[in-house]
Amino acid sequence: MDLKQFNSSPTLEGATTWEGGPNVVHRNVALLECASPSILEEALSATPLKFAVVRRISPAVVLVDHAQLGELVKFLTKKGYEPRIIS
Amino acid sequence: MQNIFELLFDQLDKLQDASPGQRPLSPHLETLGKLPPYAFKRILEGYSVGALQVMAAARGLDTQRKRAQLEQDLLKTFNDTAAVKRALERLSPAGREGLFHLKRMGGLVSLETWRATMVNRYGKEVTEQTQAELVGNLLAVYATVHTYGVEFNFPYKNELTMVGSYGSPVNLLLHPKAVGLFQPTPAEEKAYLQRDTLKPFTDPEPAPPTTPGFDSLLADLVGITRYFEQNKVKALVSGEPGKRDYQKLNEGLSVKEPGDVKAAKKMEELGRLYFLWTLLKETKIVSLNPSNDLFQVNQAASEEFFALPRYRQARLLLGAWVRSGFNEFRRIPTLHFYRMSYYETSLPDTVKTTQARFFLLGLLDFYRRQESLLPEVWLDFPRLVRAVRDLDTAFLVDHDNSANQYRQGYRYEYDYDPVFPSQGYFGDEYYAGFTSSLKLAPPKSKGVRLAAEILGAPLKLGEDFALVEGEWLAQVIAEPLSWLGIAELARDDKGRPVAFRLTDLGLAALADRPSERERQQTEIHRQVSAQSPDLTKALLVQPNFDVMVLAPLENLALLRQVDRFADQTSMGDVALYRITKDSVLRGLRSGLRGDEISTTLQDNSRVPVASNVLQSLGDWAAEFERLVLYESCEVLETPDSATLDRLLAQPDAARHVIKRLGPTFALVKPVRGAAGNGLEPTNISSAARNGGLPLYLDYQALRPGSVSFEGPFLLKVKPGAGNPYLYYRLGQFADLESYAPQKFTATFRLTAAAGQRAQQQGLTFESVIKFLEMVLPQPARRGKSSVDPVAPDTLLALKGWLGYYSPLQAEPALTIQSTQAAQLRDIFQLEEFQSALLGWAGPNIALVRQGEYEEVAARLADLGMPVNGPGETPTFEETLANEKPRRGKRSGPEETVAERERKAREKKEAEQRAQPNLREKLAQQNGRNALNLDSILDLMDMVAGHGVAPEELERLLEDLEDNPDLLWGNRVRRKRPWDY
Questions:
Q1: With contacts defined as CB-CB under 8 Å, which chain A residues touch B630?
Q2: Please, are residues B598 and B566 in contact by the beta-carbon 8 Å criterion?
């Protein structure tokens, strides 16, 4: 799914955070890891997850908006994608 | 081990090395040892010369000196070790025992309490002598204890045993040197402590009580824990579960609460259920999550507790009960309680109750060590009460009946009133706050029955120990200790306690050793396990997803594990469970993993687990684990995959990296900065300065000033302040215009398309503004109170694009104006005109639908009110020509145009003449107090109709301003109240 249609963030899909800089540690992020890329695609198309993706960092892993976690879990569970939550 | 478990065990371990009722030494002993000379003098102040001479003789001093010199001599030898030794050697047997009890009670004890203990053993006369002996030998001194410390001159002294205080109770304070120098022999100690040995209950064997024991307690603890695990139980302000929850908890108990649980106003009023709840609370197996006020199960504590051997479980719960807020005293059925303040009542508080429980457990443990308690042997209960009274009369209720400043201060100087004893105070020598139905006042021959005859006569501190403390002991054995499976109480036919015994488990718990029965069971289990391991397994997992837990109470840890992923259907000798998708999901949600569930079943089942069960478990777990959400974690990003490859190849990478997520991303363990000092670089300049250190971007810290407006619709991220989360938030409602990743900056433009996109995602104008307020520069603290950082045209556009304002509706309309507002109102209140009315542009201007205008105009013309269309302003001649005679006027012959012109001219002149009267008219109008909308409109009409010159109007207004009373005309101004 092309996430650019929902958000114009330049780092949404793959772009490096700091070109030519050192390593970057992203702190206090919410991360959703799917068992396979197809499950992520399925969840993106079936749920409002697509609106909450902050960054796709691999075909099956996305950073999601930590401010929307509660609602996101509710939507995912409702659609049969109940996530295992690790605090 | 859980910290709280260690603490609970530790407090009971200490009891094993102490005498029953032994308290830690008071810190005031040290104060006495370090007193300065002037304070020392106060110890001897007030004594008669005779008393001082006795002291001097005991210290081997010259007794025939003057008083001042006697005091000097005594003070010099007060701390002399040899003199103290000599005094100790000279003590009588009663004196030694008196000193022993003083030391046992911490070296500082209320004189009355000490005397009560001694009087019980030796009688009043010997007690008096012993008191004189200890004080005369300066082995103990009188003192009062205050918040600021210990005081020696307030207890007013005269002779050695004559002492009193109008303030706080008089205490006996042990000489600090005597603590180390006085060491009774073990034989002496045994004799002092076991004066009243427990004796077996000789009457016929009492019937075994039917109270639920330890097995029921464990089963109920499992059930309650499960309830808190599976339900969201909110705490009340009191910190306890609400009524709905305790009613449901009661339904799940193996032994239900007697009576109507609904009648209880709070959980504290319940018996066993509240007891069980306090145990879970004290052991912290269930605790309150302060962030959401919900109770939660501490899985680690729960697992550890249920895996403990039974005697350790019982010991831990015993320790929890000692510290708990459960109140047995309130539950004594023979007592009737009065409402009294905390300071007045004799009702023991939590501290005193905990102290009394420790005392009782210490005493029982002492008897166990003395082998006076044998398992399952009934012992005489009244003997126990007497032994407790002899060792520490004030172990539960303060028996000091000397004047008490607290009681004095809080009592309203009333005396015991036998007719209205409603206050519960009966005198200093009585227990306050309750009476006993076991001690009723003798009935009067006639007349109204007194409260004392129905609820009980006052209980005397010196006589009714058995009815108060004795009943408390019976209550403790009959309820908490019995529920814990530690002890049992037997009653006679009248319900009076006659005998008690400790169970096998009780003795094991006190000794902190497995009981004989438990040892045998363990041994059998070990042997069976060695011969055929499968026979010791406690589960039977059937292909229909039913699970049986055999001997559940012996396999509580396993029971609790199964409890987490299966639904219990019955509980008895075998616990039956059923595995469903929902129950497995519940377990997975609580933190279990799919493979853990399968392993638990496979490792503990006597028969191989059917493949369909394992397959379903695997499927459910896989479905659940398709998505894993880390709520808050740290992700490392490297500029290229080769860098991450190198990092992961480091020997200590496993310590820091949890897993690789992609070519340049890895999930890492949270660390506080590279140097561990929390001073990690958080912006590009400091990261660049620090060379190899990574840059830390916190997604939860949106900083003010990181974004600013460059024009009304362009948002610019401050160079160096950009991070993916900020870009994401801006990208939700604005379009990216430029991006400079080297500088960590970007610009975004607010557009209609982006606004629509934001609306689609559920963003609102308010949420966008809230976000912008977080990231835009904050207004200066001083200056305007609210500086809006967003320009008005931006705000309007955002409101429009984000759906804050609904679309506008346009419709062609014509305005109809009239000089009188009433005219238009009259017209449009008629039904036939209402459909044409679009709205009002003012009281004199109506908006009429363009399509219906012609019809309205024609109809109005019919009604004699022709409407002049746009650009159709009539000339004066036309107006005159169209003018119709007014109703009621004489309709004479047709007038000529010249006549009409003349009349019109005359009318105008007349109106101009009437103009100076305008002021009078205004005054008249207002004089009638007719300042309503109609009158104002009329006045306006009049002014307009008369063509009042602007200068004249201005003058009139100025006059009104200068003289507001003109508005009220010639009305007499009403007097206001303050004018009188």
A1: 30-33, 86
A2: no
Token pair 């860098």: residue: B643
The residue among B464 and B687 whose pLDDT is bigger is: B464
Q: With bands split at pLDDT 50, 70 and 90, how would you rate the model's confidence at B455?
A: confident
Residue B534: CB atoms within 10 A of its CB come to 10
- How far apart (Å, rounded) are the C-alpha atoms in residues B277 and B839? 69
**Distance from chain centroid for Cα B463:** 43
Chain B residues with CB-CB distance to A33 below 8 A = 627-630, 661
For A57, the enclosing helix (H) or strand (E) is strand A53-58
Q: In the β-sheet with B745-749, what is the strand arrangement from edge to edge?
A: B707-709, B714-717, B745-749, B735-740
Q: Taking a C-beta distance cutoff of 8 angstroms, is the pair B199, B379 a contact?
A: yes
**Which comes out higher in pLDDT, residue B729 or B257?**
B729
> Phi/psi zone of residue B595: left (φ > 0), alpha (ψ -120 to 50 degrees), beta?
alpha
Which strand (E) or helix (H) includes residue B644?
A: helix B641-648
Are B201 and B222 in contact by the 8 Å Cβ rule? The answer is no
Interatomic CA distance for residues B280 and B225, integer angstroms: 8
CA distances from A61 to A38, A51, A74, A85 (A): 11, 15, 19, 15
Give the distance from CA B41 to its chain's centroid: 51
Q: Do A27 and B588 touch (CB under 8 A)?
A: no
Nearest to B333 by CA among B441, B501, B456: B456
Show the tokens assigned to B281: 């609370």
pLDDT beyond 60 at B884? no
Mean pLDDT of chain B: 82
Are residues B442 and B349 in contact, defined by beta-carbon separation less than 8 angstroms?
no
> On the CB side of B754, how many CA atoms lie within 13 Å of its CA?
24
CA proximity to B364, closest of B524, B198, B475: B198
Side chain identity at residue B195, one-letter code: R
* Contact of B813 with B848, CB cutoff 8 Å: yes
B383: closest CA among B369, B372, B375, B368? B372
Beta bridge partners of B477: none
pLDDT of residue B922: 56
Structure tokens at B605: 């089942």
The model's pLDDT over B156-169, given as tens digits with 9 standing for 90+, comes to: 788 888 887 765 67
Give this complex's ipTM: 0.96
pLDDT given at position B889: 47
CA distance B45 to B83: 21
- What is the C-alpha to C-alpha distance for residues B44 and B51, in angstroms, rounded to an integer? 10
pLDDT tens digit sequence for B51-69: 999 999 888 888 888 888 8
| Contacting residues of A for B735, CB less than 8 Å apart | 8
Window 62-81 of A, Cβ < 8 Å to B: 63-66, 69, 73, 76, 81
Nearest CB among A8, A12, A83 relative to B629 is that of A83
Judge residue B85's burial from the number of C-beta atoms within 10 Å of its C-beta, 0-12 exposed, 13-18 middle, 19 or more buried: middle
pLDDT digits (tens, 9 = 90+) for B67-113: 888 888 888 888 888 888 888 888 899 999 999 989 988 888 888 88
Q: State whether B735 and A8 contact (CB < 8 Å).
A: yes
Distance between CA atoms of B298 and B280, rounded to whole angstroms? 10
Tokens of B437: 């139905």
Domain residue ranges in chain B: 4-193, 214-511, 537-607, 707-801, 813-873, 915-968
B326 in Cβ contact with B278 (< 8 Å): yes
Task: Report the alpha-carbon distance of residue B150 to residue B26 in Å, rounded.
Answer: 11
Q: For chain A, which residues make up each domain, given as ranges?
A: 3-13+28-78
Contact B665 A30 (CB under 8 A): no
Complete DSSP assignment for B599-642:
HHHHHHBSSPPPHHHHHHHHHHHHHHTTEEEEEEEEEEE-SSHH
